[in-house]
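As described in the Methods, two query proteins were run sequentially through the folding procedure within a single session, without resetting any intermediate state between them. The first query and its resulting structure tokens are shown here.
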Amino acid sequence: MKKLLSLSLIVILTLTSCLYAETPEVTKIRWARANSGNVLVTLAQNNGYLKEYGLEVIEMPLNSTNDALTALSTKQVDVTSNNGTNNPLQFMAAGSDFTIVGGYMLKGMYIVAKKGTGWKGIGDLVGKKLATSKSQTWVTGPLLAAGYSLDDVIWLTYSTNSDRLAAVIAGEADYACLSGDLLFRVGNLKDVIEIVAWADDLMPDYGCCRMNMHTDFVKANPVTVKLLLKALIRAEQYLRANPDESVKILAKELNASEEFVAAYLKNPNYIPSVDPVKHSIKATWDIMMKTGFLSPEAKNYDLDSHINIELYKAALDELVAERRDEDPEFYDGRLEFFKAHNL
């Protein structure tokens, strides 16, 4: 009799749990995928977090930033995450109705030079040839803050990171700004090239790549967005707790060597984070206004209404209530980080 009662209780609890489980408004999410992929999406898929929340991410190859953001603007995709922060903000200022709901890369870019060049500070760039765009706010912001003008640097534009690195090797440029996916190659050139500064040294927690959605999608599907963020936060926790296994999973997904993936994924200066970092987004916007990369009319743009921190906070709060005991240091740290970078 007791056994039957116990079984009945289990059935009731299971049915109650299913009854009150949140149902996403839409289950399929179209994600613009760059060649480098998104490790948090990969881990959320591989570990079953997305499936647990009734979601399926469909990754659509769009390596060009312009193509990805245009596809988001025209609602051909639902999410972009590998296209920096400046570019989405430019699209938004020009009329694209995006809302930033989270992030992907928090930091990970860096400056290289010929070995032995050294680094004393942002003033080292004055009068030198720098292979990057003037829109690189983690460089231009600190330059302006130090009292320099953008004209004090010679800016060289190249189409790819590989071209920028090659320019330094060939002596065409004194410095180059590069992204994490070249860390393996840079490491193999340590007798020729050195990393002289990390972007985070110049502009802490600058928010390298934001997670953008069309505003209509966010308004119509808040539960879907919140559940997606929960899956990604759990992936972030897994990545930090299991770096070696994460390298293996991503290497398999990208069909790349584990050495190549480990060069950036295990680098302490390369940090993915789902947090929106609202303060960093607004700082980037302000720098872009000062440097002329946004039209004068953009000064009246209501940026706050296009940064949704509420859904991320709701996702984080729920995970703290449900899973804090699994990794108290991670979840407590995320709460403190959110408070410092968004409120």
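Immediately afterward, the second query was submitted; its sequence and tokens are:
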Amino acid sequence: MKNNQAELFIQMRCELGEGPFWDEKTGRLHWLDILNGTVFRTSVTAGNHGPIEAFTPSSLVAAVGLRKDGGCVASTDRGLGLFDLPMPGTAVSEPEKPVAIPFTLVARPGFDTAKVVYNDGKCGPDGAFWAGSKDRAHKDGLGLLERVGADGKTDVLERDLVISNGLGWSPDLRRFYLTDSPRRAIYRYDYDAATGSLSNRTLWIDTTGQDEVPDGLAVDSEGCVWSARWGGARLLRYSPDGVEIGEVSVPGVSQVSSCCFGGSDMKTLFITSALEGFSPARRDREALAGSVFAFDAGVRGLPFHRFGA
């Protein structure tokens, strides 16, 4: 794979654009601005997006997934919970004027919320929500990786994380990937699909010494991992054995935060970005920061798992 460049898909100014996910049932892309607690949604047809809808659940969302019975599941400042989005086109909303929607709490956080907060998360192949958390100060290993079942039962799968970030499963469900951004590490685990357990943690990708930081990730149908690079203005693609085999530059933005596969053929890589922490001068200089980008990856992504028994 040669060097490639993503294209601007939706120009907007998310403070911390994050957590994109695709709903194949409705053909819609979703993503978040987690500093403002907003969930965005738009249709995608023939490479073009429709009107952008915006919603604010009554809790500050960190990561969102889809439920098997419809609606969404999310890790938030209050804990894990459920909310339903209005049927497409039934709620008049704009990116600057989100619609408030109710939120039902399922499980409270298992950590000290004064020091720790939820961060990236995804629905797993076991029907649970895998919720990562981070040290608010970004210094100590206070973050966890928790698995929260549909019954609200919570298991801690990993400890001693500074910022639990990008996570995903291999196509054969034998491997699990987890990023700890400040440690500049992507770990690989053995995943037991029968029990949902993890074992044999390996430092799979080590970016120590680099200015850029690994952030969100997506896994494609060939088992390769696409890692967003905060501060690097790009994504990198790694083969299953951890060899860097491709690069996608994201023009005009440095803080590339996350990515997901979507589109009718699941070959479009949607990429989020952020302007968190920018000075006024840098906000002006990176005029596209906070926007959503798209890239024709030439390879299919994996279907999203859903929450529920």
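The radius of gyration is 18 Å. We note this only descriptively and draw no conclusion about the first query from it.
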